[in-house]
Amino acid sequence: MVYMLLGTGFEETEAIAPLDLLRRAGVDVMTVGINGKIVKGSHGIGIEADIELHELDLTDLEMIILPGGLGGVASIRASAEAMNAVKFAADNGKFTAAICAGPTVLADLGITDGKNATCYPGCEDGMGSAHMIPGAAALRDGKLITGTSAGCAIPFGLALIEALKGAEAAEKIEKQIVIR
Hints:
By secondary structure, the protein is of the alpha/beta class.
């Protein structure tokens, strides 16, 4: 199972675009409300999460995804349960993925240390000892996948699909959505 953590103030595009692409590719993905079942994004769009944080089942975890948005990132950091879930994923060899300001949460936990990563321009100081790759829309280094911004949500989503289902599956979705 793939879980996407949604905290109040998450960046809507960085959540919805990858979520849509993953589901198009047949990936089992559930949104997880950190602050309740209905979660408001950074632009006031309310999303009904599939489950609440206390319902998260880490026994079947394949990947955990953190959208950006400063409020959403702050919501994740403020939740010991959310931070523990992210740490569990990394400690157990599962994929950890984050976009925009989200990779700084991974850096807080040491997940990006010594790895190639990207993040929102200006958040680099929060990336610890990650090897930053400027200009990358999305980047994979082993079980770590990072993306730059809302404008990179599609390449980020395709990178998630490629990690879970292979390049052919990602290419199929890329053709289906007619990306240019």
